[in-house]
């Protein structure tokens, strides 16, 4: 990669790919970025979510149970799937890109053991899409002793710095903010990962708008158990992942002696309180504007619980729907831009690594 050539470029056209823990689908966002004297500006020109078919949902949901050779095969298969999706998207919208920046899909995330795995083989993606690719944005940070997450705060710092707090409400809720010139961020709670799991028990992919949760009632015993499960996480602020959810939280949600609507209601309230406390604890006594993005921003019941818990100290800002839906894909496209310039895209202040890094593997960049 010719870093000198890339460092002089100030306009980029990038396709950002994001597949989250909620398994809603593959987010594809064609973004442009421009560097000016005042900093970076961006535009999401075209974006869509490619819903996963039932077979693909099953493959991704059960990937952590596969044998070694089967997981390697799925990594390559999913890489080709991503590449074909990109080729189709670019052809349909008659677009060209400098490169594709892909988050992949997380199968294992165990930074305490020194590894993380996002499948979606970059070489396979490259051969199928026919475009340069940057991928595997987390591994280097983990090897430097970091959590490998969250990575979105770099985008918050450069693209959304006008807000006091940036809150992402996906499978996992995380927030980031600037404190004395340093970007801090952490995972605060499980949101859609738990809500979608419970909605699945009713044969639904998700609880639209939080309607089912709103019909339920608070179950004091379940709320106490959920709050207790969050206690050690609140203190350590680890990177939350499927492993923690399945070990600590899913057994609590499987208690079918509690009505499903009540479980949804109580899980939502518990998550909103965790997120609210994280926000209030970080901003002190000052009023704060909170940018809300991710699928959870459309969950009216969750948002009302969050506001009720925080009171009038915070104002929840909802940007346009495209940014709400595709902010993560946008930011991974931007992480690719920084990587292509050999600039820092992973902050030790956020991940607790031993150093900042420019993370990501490249294929086809010259």
UniProtKB/TrEMBL annotation:
SUPFAM superfamilies: Actin-like ATPase domain
InterPro entries: Anhydro_N_Ac-Mur_kinase (IPR005338), ATPase_NBD (IPR043129)
UniProt keyword annotation of Transferase present: yes
Leading EC class: transferase
Matching Gene3D superfamilies: 3.30.420.40
Entry keywords, A to Z: Kinase, Transferase
Superkingdom of origin: Bacteria
Recorded GO MF terms: ATP binding; kinase activity; phosphotransferase activity, alcohol group as acceptor
GO terms classed as biological process: amino sugar metabolic process; peptidoglycan turnover
Protein EC: 2.7.1.170
UniProt name for this protein: Anhydro-N-acetylmuramic acid kinase
């Amino acid at each position: 990669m010719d870093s000198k050539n890339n460092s002089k470029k100030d306009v980029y056209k990038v396709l950002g790919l994001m597949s989250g823990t909620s398994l809603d689908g593959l987010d594809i966002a064609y973004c442009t970025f421009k560097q000016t004297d005042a900093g970076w500006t961006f535009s999401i020109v075209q974006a869509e979510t490619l819903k996963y078919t039932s077979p693909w949902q099953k493959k991704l949901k059960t990937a952590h149970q596969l044998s070694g050779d089967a997981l390697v095969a799925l990594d390559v298969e999913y890489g080709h799937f991503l590449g074909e999706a990109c080729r189709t998207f670019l052809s349909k919208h008659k677009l060209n890109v400098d490169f594709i920046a892909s988050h992949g899909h997380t199968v294992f995330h165990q930074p305490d053991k020194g590894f993380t795995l996002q499948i979606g083989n970059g070489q396979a993606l490259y051969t199928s899409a026919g475009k340069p690719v940057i991928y595997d944005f987390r591994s280097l940070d983990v090897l430097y002793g970091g959590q490998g997450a969250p990575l979105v705060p770099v985008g918050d710092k450069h693209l959304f710095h006008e807000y006091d707090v940036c809150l992402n409400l996906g499978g996992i809720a995380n927030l980031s903010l600037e404190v004395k010139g340093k970007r801090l961020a952490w995972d605060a709670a499980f949101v859609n990962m738990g809500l979608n799991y419970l909605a699945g028990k009713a044969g639904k992919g998700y609880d639209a708008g939080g309607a089912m949760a709103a019909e339920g009632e608070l179950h004091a015993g379940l709320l106490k158990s959920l709050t207790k499960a969050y206690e050690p996480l609140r203190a350590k602020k680890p990177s939350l992942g499927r492993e923690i959810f399945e070990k600590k939280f899913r057994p609590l949600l499987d208690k079918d002696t509690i009505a499903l609507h009540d479980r949804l209601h109580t899980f939502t309230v518990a998550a909103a309180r965790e997120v609210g406390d994280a926000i209030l604890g970080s901003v002190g006594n000052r009023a704060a504007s909170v940018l809300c993005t991710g699928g959870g921003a459309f969950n009216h019941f969750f948002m009302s619980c969050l506001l009720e818990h925080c009171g009038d100290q915070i104002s929840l800002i909802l940007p346009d729907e495209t940014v709400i839906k595709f902010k993560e894909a946008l930011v991974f496209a931007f992480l690719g831009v920084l990587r292509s310039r050999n600039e820092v895209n992973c902050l030790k202040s956020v991940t607790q690594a031993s150093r900042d890094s420019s993370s990501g593997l490249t294929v086809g960049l010259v």
